[in-house]
């Protein structure tokens, strides 16, 4: 099973996954949609499933002809976001923030979106390098704007910015776990998000600065916010002194 342990999925679905990886075009639309739901449900169980779930999705997407799986994945990601308060967040909300299960599912969802977006961008960078011999600028290596892959990239980009907005709301910005999720997302794909949507990134950075000067923010959250602000100011690459300063030495394993 690509990226997963053999028993990661129920036995009754393992044959379906193998068939989809070999030839998704042989499966009905209904089966492909069921498979999307299955993979997304697994992806939000834990952050460690984000990368293998994205890998599994793209192993299917690259073989299909009519884009049923891709479009279903796009719809599923959007619906999970729209239903986040029921499926990912508020089921576990308490007066002091999210409990561990709620934080875990929300973090896993954002991680899955991040990994999907990263694969879309990397796939087309590699395609551009193959065509141009490595001389094509990154902004010229995006998928055709009307292609299904471009629509997926735009959906993922939009969802990631919307997730960031959720995490920077007053009700969330005081929760260290929320800001850590945001930090991990921006460390991974902040550069790509800014290249695609510089104005939206500028708006996000403005919100980060507003949160940073909020007097109710505790010292640890303020440090994480400052790290992300400096990461953006440093063109998404911290130097060694910055890296040493921001390393979370006191975070429990």
TrEMBL record:
<dbReference type="GO" id="GO:0005829">
    <property type="term" value="C:cytosol"/>
</dbReference>
<protein>
    <submittedName>
        <fullName>MIF4G domain-containing protein A</fullName>
    </submittedName>
</protein>
<dbReference type="GO" id="GO:0006446">
    <property type="term" value="P:regulation of translational initiation"/>
</dbReference>
<dbReference type="InterPro" id="IPR051367">
    <property type="entry name" value="mRNA_TranslReg/HistoneTransl"/>
</dbReference>
<dbReference type="GO" id="GO:0008494">
    <property type="term" value="F:translation activator activity"/>
</dbReference>
<dbReference type="InterPro" id="IPR016024">
    <property type="entry name" value="ARM-type_fold"/>
</dbReference>
